[in-house]
Design goal:
Layout: H1 3-10, E1 17-22, E2 28-34, E3 45-49, E4 60-62, E5 66-71, H2 93-107, E6 113-121, H3 129-139, E7 144-150, E8 154-160, E9 163-168, E10 171-182, H4 195-215, E11 216-229, E12 232-243, H5 249-256, E13 264-265, H6 267-277, E14 288-292, E15 298-302, E16 306-308, E17 313-320, H7 326-341
Antiparallel strand pairs: 1-2, 1-7, 2-5, 3-4, 3-14, 6-13, 6-17, 7-8, 8-16, 9-10, 9-15, 10-12, 11-12, 14-15, 16-17
């Protein structure tokens, strides 16, 4: 490890708030360092927004007092992407209980879609967080990879494939990402998707489309197409749009978050149902992470395939429709957990 990388690794044992992030297909990562506590809340910087904001889980912005750009070895421990991790064969009792409640609400016609997630305790050496970040950058070139530490959040590591908002001023991009299955050895363009997966993606795309119609003057849509993310593939549609002059960056974020990819439809009712019936605290999982710059380039992602390294907890979830079955959905969360567990 170079002296520069050693200095960055040491930041995670300091009092400073710090975030590292690597955008997809980049051979460098960015370091955002906040030297001290701000007298007033910052608006621009590296954002960590929880699934639901609360006194326990506030939105945190790491102000860019110092910014570094670092090259890294794209082949560092790349073999870890093929590391074998055994699935837990059967759903645990908490997940089965929550699935029953979610499934009943869907079959009663109360919801069009709900997202059920879970967490799992993992063994992790917090002192190895920086090396795990470098491994993730090498193993997952198609994802946004981040490592962030603040007094309010602890240390989080994530490898997320889902853009919430990317762009600047007159042109932004967002995606509808839903539907999941293991990546196969053959060309991903030849993979056949089940009706359940296609319907799940269509629900998310319809939601994004309807939200943007109230926010944007020009909207262009591409997809859906199959997109690879680590050991999984998803169905993805891209939306490019120009916001209305009266529409602020905050308006766009609050309108899109949480998307049906992590919540459900109808949105407000699904959010309340999840909080009352999922059975645990999502914390910053399925929230928002990334750089927010109201006068420049913003790159915000949905916080998926992530872990709270301070508490040794990894998170994963999946979208439920009326035809979902508990074993298949559990298996999907197992595959998603492998993304983070392989590098830890």
């Amino acid at each position: 490890m170079t002296d520069e990388l050693k200095d960055i690794a040491e930041l995670f044992g300091s009092e400073e708030s710090v975030a590292l992030y690597r955008l997809p297909f980049s051979d460098e990562f960015t370091v955002v360092i906040q030297d001290g506590q701000k007298a007033s809340p910052a608006t621009d910087g590296f954002v960590m927004m929880p699934f639901v904001e609360s006194e326990k889980h506030p939105t945190v912005v790491i102000s860019p007092d110092r910014i570094l750009h670092c090259k890294y070895n794209t082949e560092v421990n790349l073999y870890l992407a093929d590391k074998e991790i055994e699935n837990t064969a059967l759903p645990d009792e908490r997940y089965k209980s929550a699935f029953g409640k979610f499934s009943k609400a869907l079959n009663d016609g109360i919801f069009e879609k709900l997202v059920l997630s879970r967490c799992e305790k993992i063994q992790i050496e917090k002192s190895d967080a920086f090396n795990s970040f470098l491994k993730a950058c090498a193993a997952y070139p198609r994802m946004m990879v981040y490592l962030a530490k603040t007094p309010a959040t602890g240390i989080w590591l994530g490898c997320t494939p889902e853009i919430l908002l990317s762009g600047e001023k007159s042109h932004y991009r967002t995606v509808a990402l839903a539907g999941t299955m293991p990546a196969a050895d053959k060309d991903i363009r030849d993979l056949a998707w089940s009706e359940k997966n296609k319907e799940e993606q269509a629900v998310v795309a319809s939601y994004i489309r309807s939200r943007l119609s109230a926010l944007a003057t020009v909207i262009e849509e591409e997809g859906p197409y199959t997109s690879k993310a680590g050991n999984l593939v998803h169905l993805k549609s891209e939306f490019h749009f120009s916001p209305k002059p009266s529409c602020s960056l905050g308006d766009i974020i609050s309108s899109l978050h949480p998307t049906p990819a992590v919540c459900g439809l109808p949105k407000d009712e699904a959010l309340a149902f999840i909080l009352n019936n999922e059975g645990y605290d999502r914390s910053y999982y399925s929230g928002i992470v990334g750089m927010l710059d109201s006068s420049g380039t913003t790159n915000l992602y949905v916080n998926l395939r992530c872990a709270n390294l301070s508490e040794g907890i990894a998170y994963a979830g999946g979208g439920l429709l009326r035809q979902s079955d508990v074993q298949s959905e559990w298996n999907e969360t197992e595959e998603k957990l492998k993304t983070i567990k392989k590098i830890l």
